[in-house]
Amino acid sequence: MGEYNAPLKDMRFVLNNIIDLEGLSGIEKFAHAESDVVDAVLEEASKFAGNILSPLNKSGDLAGSSVSDGVVTSPDGWKEAYAQFVAGGWNGISCPEEFDGGAMPQAVSLATVEMWNSSNLAFALCPLLTQGAIESLISHGTKEQQGKYLKKLVTGEWTATMNLTESSAGSDVGALRTKAEPGEDGSWLISGQKIFITYGEHELAENIIHLVLARTPGSPDGTRGISLFIVPKFLVNDDGTLGQRNDLQCVSLEEKIGIHASPTAVMSYGDNGECVGYLLGEENKGMACMFTMMNNARLGVGTQGLAVAERAYQQAVEYAIDRKQGRAPGTPKGESASIVKHADVRRNLMTMKSQIEAMRCLIYLNGEYLDKGHNHPDPEIRKTSLGLAELLTPLSKAWSTDLGVELSSIAVQIHGGMGFIEETGVGQYYRDSRILPIYEGTNGIQALDLVGRKLGLNGGEPVKTLLADMDDLAREISGEDEALNVISRQLGVAVTALKEATDWMYTNAPNDPNAAPAGATPYLRMFATTVGGYLMAKSAVKAKALLAAGDTDTKFLNGKIVTAQFFATQILPQVAALLGPVTEGPELLFAIEEDHLVA
């Protein structure tokens, strides 16, 4: 099994041709994000990912993290790798310069996030949540809080967590029981227990800043009565130095089917009645503050789905080329062919490759819209971009993480029986990927968010804009070029089906509370797959243009066109097939009584 090699050529193609990197560098905040600077950043990131993080991936999985008396021990090499990560400035690459960040566009930083997660998903989970906490503090923190916490979080000297889930509540955050009582000097005393806290305890950094959801006295029921609190592992003095250990501890670590090196903690707060926390944002507005962190994390988790699929694909290709078995057409008698010569294996590889490239386009585009939505000088462009970013986020998270599991499974299949043997290492990607559709709001919740919130966002303007853009491209590329004609026909059929499904949602959702939820999951798959086909079509158009202009990288660019054709003919037809499940309605879901669901 070889180490991870970042697909820099494809990353650069997406950033330069699908993403408007030149336009982003024209925004004052991103003036330094010129193509040559971005290339240098990506090159250095690829070295760190391939040389430092990747070699620790399998050994970390085998060793795992452990806890004894509340102290968590990470696998060998973990602490040294994290120190190098911090020293390289990688943690704050997209953070504002005023907090010692690199102020790179998210579209660029997502490429580095992809590298960390492809090379070592369990390691990359730590900085992922720190990024979300940084976003929450920038958006909702006081100047004092920002001054006290942000620079250390941006550098990565301190890490952060997100504490939502409790054993009695699960995804129903409004049912949480953790309490916050008024303390001294504006502080609060936190008491309760949280589960599934990624990197809730570790020794990689000198402090951990927990963001904890809790209820204050007399707060309303449900999510309307939840507040968010900053709860440091070590209290921070006014001069920024660390004070005494706070009254919190790691009770245990979960035994998981994957990401073994990532410590998933059960955290207990206030066992001695002395856990100090500080209100972040307004009282009873904790969900709004937490969603700032969660939306950041959702795009990050979507990137993890892309990343683990890319790593599994790289190993599958390597194995398919090296493994000889059976005869393929043209193989001399008595000789075996590499399995990459067999049509079914090639189908599996192309199924992986085409959807990985589509995911990369989608996720980086989502980042671009966030960049423009928060930073573009034109208020109309900011509004349009933010609307599209919000629309794409559930697609990026759910589609990419579903595909992370599906494509990792295909990688196991390509290995045949050896794929089921831990020795090959490919099973780790399958195991690791399975948490991703559950993280940060299960993919069912993402689908409900899409049909319940995002379709109606700004009067439906983002949906209308995207549908029109996809329809326009399908028409524009219909002409004499047969390669683009193939893509045009299939994209047009998919867009037509998606429009029909969308109209059905708009028409039926107001009349039946179960109508939209019943079709939400297949609808999200329809939407994301269509957007993927649209972006692959754009890739093919740009590749054609580059070839016509004399670009000499013909192998890569022709591969782009063929991969887009494969997506159009083999993946996009699934969209029209999903129209029936989306519009069938909820009746059959509830036609069997609950007690009859048991055989």
Describe the structure.
The chain is globular, with a radius of gyration of 24 Å. The protein starts with 7 loop residues before the first helix and ends in a 16-residue tail after the last helix. Strands 3, 4, 5, 6, 7, 10, 11 and 12 form an 8-stranded mixed beta sheet that branches. Strands 1-2 form a two-stranded antiparallel ribbon. A hairpin with a 5-residue loop joins β8 and β9 (242-245). It is of the alpha+beta class and 599 residues long. The chain has 19 helices and 12 strands. The protein has a domain at 457-599.
Query: Which spans have pLDDT < 50 for at least 5 consecutive residues?
Result: none
What's the alpha carbon Rg, rounded to whole Å?
Answer: 24 Å
Count helical runs: 19
Largest sheet: 8 strands, mixed
Structural class: alpha+beta
- β-strand percent reads 5-15%
Mean pLDDT across the residues is 95
Shape: globular
Summarize this structure as a short list of keywords or feature phrases.
alpha+beta, two-stranded antiparallel ribbon, globular, eight-stranded mixed sheet
